[in-house]
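Here is one chain, start to finish.
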Amino acid sequence: MQTTKWALLIALVFAGFSCNADRAKSEVLIKNDGGGDIPQYIAKYLNLQLSGEQVVIDGDCLSACTLALGLLAQDRRCFTNKARLGFHAAYTESGALRTRNPFGTDVFWLVYPPEIRRWISRHGGLTSRMIYLEGKELAAMYPPCRRPIRSLKKLRD
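Its structure:
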């Protein structure tokens, strides 16, 4: 069942890129998001991509949250000067036990755009240690948001 779930979500992601959504209707704020279940983030970002909403990343966007880099079109996302992206290898939690999830790590690598994969490789790869992309280094890769954020609706799970 888990394999079917992953296969369906990955197929939907690639199908979503071939669809033309209308221009952005509203803006959604991602702020201080610690990540979570990879398939849920894939579904959430695919839905945002298809909805045409603009996504503003402000503050921490860690782990599965960073899938936004590969699942949302570059013209549909922007970063404030407070944005901080955190990358690590995927793992599965069961109580206090963390187990490596090589398939999840492969999904991260598959979804991330080439410039992010290069950056991760230069900083030691995806390991159990979190590595952060922020500030001038992030702004050099992706243009910051053009206008100040006002009252945006915060993305909920």
